[in-house]
Amino acid sequence: MRRVIITVLLVICSVTLHPSATSAGTGDAAASHRGSLLAKARVRVTLTTSTPWVKKGDDVSLKGQVKGARGRQVVRIMQRTKGSRSWVVEATKKTNRKGAFRHREDINTGDRSYKACVGGACSKPVTVRMGTPPKKSTSVAIAAVSPTTVEAGQAFTVSGSASSNLEGRTVQVEAYDSGTDAWSPIGSAIVRSGAWTGSASVSTAGSAVPLRASFAGGIGLARSSSTATSIAVYGWFHLRNRESVSDSNGLTGGSYNVNGVTYPQSVGVWFFSSRTSYVEYDLSRSCTRFAATVGVADYSPSDEKVAGALIVDNVTKWSRTGIGLGQSYPLDIDITAGLRLRIEGTPEVYGSDADLIFGDARVYCAP
């Protein structure tokens, strides 16, 4: 019994006097773990891809760098396909003396992500998608149109702005044609420092012809159009081609000779006894000028005279009496904002055979 007690006491004393003997293994493991964490913290791995988008069968090139580790390192190229939660080793590479590494492979199926790992240190994932990359948005705008009123076919200036990704690109100026329900190019300009200025012209008259700027799109760039603005475009219209709203049954029209000159787009009046003959046209308050050459037709009797008048909304804009053979009077009259245009002729003798002609009678309008 005494021997047992002595043996136990010796063991207890041994443990008490030498605690390092029991903790040495634990200390070594902790130190090793701390070293691993420090090593992992020092190693940094980066990874880039040659392109984020590929087509089926295209190559993708991965390029990376390892820093914080000495010597050539073994790099695991990890891959995760779309829909998968786990990473698999795609390839193993070694860095060069500067810590760089590369990997290339064909892509034949869907989207995937890659990362590169050295030990426990891994790069951020990079994604490669299969298909066509979405186009970048663009924008164009019209800032000014000068002048704001033009004649059909007359050049005018359009200026505006464009997004930075359109530098050096062509912007089209377009006009809307209600007849074809389509936008058509009427001018163009090159974008410089976010701005553009170009010349354009419209061949069809209209009180408010819609205009817009447009970029047709390009590789990687989406199509865009500006908010529409408008311009007033005036043109000359022969009265012969417009339907009259009222007449005295003495209306005539076509090609006539007046004082030796042929006027192919003429209107005129002929007479019943001594009554005034007339014809009226609707201007819709869209016209500003009336032009014609007035006289009697060259087939009229030489001894007969007539009187003529041009009336707009019951206001006489022009009148003359004693118009006879061999005489002609050019007219260019302001009819701005007029609604109803009336041409009158009155014979100065009963039963006159002279016809009063308004040679190439026309109005300047933006309908």
What assembly state would you assign to the polypeptide chains in this entry?
A: single chain
Percentage of β-strand residues: over 45%
Terminus-to-terminus distance:
131 Å
- Structural class by SSE content: mainly beta
What is the number of independent domains?
3
What ranges have pLDDT less than 50 throughout 5 or more consecutive residues? 1-39
Task: Let me know the largest β-sheet.
Answer: 11 strands, mixed
- Helices and strands, in order, run as HHEEEEEEEEEEEEEEEEEEEEEEEEEEEE
Pfam families: NPCBM
Signal peptide: 1-24
Keywords: Signal
Protein name: Glycosyl hydrolase family 98 putative carbohydrate-binding module domain-containing protein
Question: What does this entry show, briefly?
Answer:
With 367 residues, the chain is mainly beta.
Report on this model:
- With 367 residues, this protein is mainly beta.
- It has 3 domains: 44-130, Sandwich (Immunoglobulin-like); 140-234, Immunoglobulins (Immunoglobulin-like, Sandwich), CATH 2.60.40; 242-365, Jelly Rolls.
- The chain has helices at residues 2-17, 20-42, and strands at residues 44-49, 53-54, 59-67, 74-81, 88-94, 100-106, 112-118, 121-122, 126-130, 140-146, 149-151, 155-162, 170-177, 182-190, 195-201, 206-215, 224-225, 229-238, 246-247, 251-258, 261-269, 277-282, 287-296, 306-312, 315-323, 329-334, 340-347, 356-365.
- The strands form 5 sheets. Strands 11, 13, 14, 16, 17, 18, 20, 21, 23, 26 and 28 form an 11-stranded mixed β-sheet that branches. Strands 2, 4, 5, 7, 8 and 9 form a 6-stranded mixed β-sheet that branches. A 5-stranded antiparallel β-sheet has the order 19-22-27-24-25, with no helix packed on it.
- A hairpin with a 2-residue loop joins strand 7 and strand 8.
- The longest helix is centred in the N-terminal third of the chain and has 23 residues, at 20-42.
- The radius of gyration is 46 Å and the shape is rod-shaped.
- It starts with a helix and ends with a strand.
- The relative contact order is 0.10.
- Residues 1-39 have low confidence and may be disordered.
